[in-house]
Amino acid sequence: MKAVKQASTAAALKAERDQDMAQAMRDYExxxxxxxANMARLRALRLEKERxxxxxxxxxxxxxxxxxxxxxxxxxxxxRT
Length: 81
Fold this sequence. Notes:
Structural class: mainly alpha
Helix content: 55-70%
Number of helices: 1
């Protein structure tokens, strides 16, 4: 009789642990989904902000080249010895 009682208690504890483990896994997966959804939301906001900023500011004109010192009319320095 004592062995049967211990076996049923052990089975009940095992079943409870299995339920706890399953619940913990569901909680973990739910948190992971929420974290990924938040990351996607923040990424979308960041990309939208970057797109709006790039449209608001004109693109730099890289075709325009700087003039060198000789083209601006500056005389070259003379060496005195």
